Amino acid sequence: MAVRPALPRRAGRRTNLALLGLLLLAFVTGGLAYGVGTPPATTVVVAVHGAAGLGLLLLVPWKAVIVRRSWARAANTRALATGLGVLVALAVLTGVLHAIGVAPLSMLLIHVGLAVCVAPFLLLHAWGRRQRPRRTDLSRRTLLKTGALVAGAAALWAAGEGALRLAGAPGAERRGTGSLEHGTDDPTVMPVTQWFTDTVPTKISAAITLVTGGQQARIPISDLDRGDRVRAVLDCTGGWYAAQDWSGVRLDRLLDGLTDGNLPVDGSVDVISRTGYRRRLPLRDAPSLLLATFAAGQPLSIGHGAPVRLIAPGRRGFWWVKWVERIEVVDAPWWRQPPFPLQ
After folding, report:
1. Cα 129 from Cα 70, distance rounded (Å)
2. What is the C-alpha separation between 248 and 255, in angstroms, rounded?
3. What is the pairing mode between strands 290-295 and 215-220?
4. Is the confidence at residue 6, as pLDDT, over 50?
5. pLDDT value of residue 19
6. Integer Cα distance of 192 and 51 in angstroms
7. Which end of the chain is more exposed for a tag (fewer CB within 10 A), N or C?
8. Which pLDDT value is given to residue 70?
9. In 3D, which of 317, 294, 296, 319 has the Cα closest to residue 307?
10. Does pLDDT of 283 surpass 80?
11. Does the pTM of the predicted model rise above 0.85?
12. Domains in the chain, number
């Protein structure tokens, strides 16, 4: 007589809610990880993201019971549910492969693409399955089970990180954002990437335009190499980072030369590329922002933003505007813009 494997008996509504909660947490922290560029905040966000993804694996035995019970009567939704399950599994797998260090320049993009595809499947799957709150949702037993799930997910993530370090895998050297090192101190090795809505221009400018307080000035590119230097990490949302010694001119020095230091304290600065790509930053950050024309002692290449690009230490790569052509001081808060570029 065949013996069926023992499976958890208590599986249903709370299992589905736990899965939904972990998926939503993974989505939110994944989005935050793209926007947060400095530790320790980014380290915490990425750790929670990884734990949420791995925590899904802990619920597989209970979800298997639900699937087996409902498979016969869910003929109309089998394809949708199967597609959702496959996409989630692939998203978790590609996230793990990126953490290990497999295909460092493409695996994270595949992971993000799969996660984006999960969203509409999850919405359709959850539609019409609204769950009303119950008094037992806050019972001691439920809270203990939730705590056990959180602890288990955290332990699984910590065990994975420990295994990477013991094995000496490339992923063990990931930055707090989850990015892998590629091209430090060698711009020729540093990948050439740009925001997915942006393109490399066919022509570059010989000067940049500076606009502030009703004044406008054209500054030749050759006048931007004023000896200011900063070592900063370019942390690309494509999953790689590189530390370089950048040189050029600090933005505050450039602005002071035009305004005699009379700048609005609470203003912002729009940095605009020749392609129309733009980012707005707080004017108070001007002393830490650099308009770079050189990296590691070498002139910037066109792929890396020549003739001049913005260096924004502590911010992710999409803030580092390439092919800078125009800078405008504006009387508007820096946060009054989309969190991610839409150009």
Report:
1. 14
2. 14
3. unpaired
4. no
5. 95
6. 31
7. N
8. 84
9. 294
10. yes
11. yes
12. 2
DSSP secondary structure, 119-162, as one string: HHHHHHHHTT------GGGGSHHHHHHHHHHHHHHHHHHHHHHH
Tell me how crowded residue 167 is: count the other CB atoms within 10 A of its CB. 11
Residues 229 and 316 in one domain: yes
Task: Specify whether 251 is located in the same domain as 165.
Answer: no
Averaged pLDDT for residues 176-193: 95
Angstrom distance (rounded) from CA 187 to CA 338: 30
- 250: tokens are 């600090």
Amino acid 340 reads F
Can you name the residues that pair with 145 across neighbouring β-strands?
A: none
Share of the chain above pLDDT 70, in %: 95
What Å distances lie between residue 241 and 50, 162, 205, 247, CA to CA?
A: 19, 22, 27, 18
Amino acid in position 12: G
Cβ atoms within 10 A of the Cβ of 26, count?
Answer: 25
Examine the pLDDT at 130 and tell me if it is beyond 80: no
Domain that holds residue 174: 13-179
Length of the chain: 343
Question: pLDDT tens for residues 7-26?
Answer: 455 568 889 999 999 999 99
Which residues face 291 on adjacent strands? 249, 310
**Within a 10 A sphere around the Cβ of 245, how many other Cβ atoms?**
14
Q: Say what the pLDDT of residue 13 is.
A: 85
Token pair of 123 as six digits: 């919405």
Do 85 and 163 lie in one domain? The reply is yes
Are 211 and 326 within 8 A, CB to CB?
Answer: yes
Q: Mean pLDDT of all residues in the chain?
A: 91
Residues 129, 17 share a domain: yes
Asked if residue 249 and residue 164 are part of one domain, the reply reads no
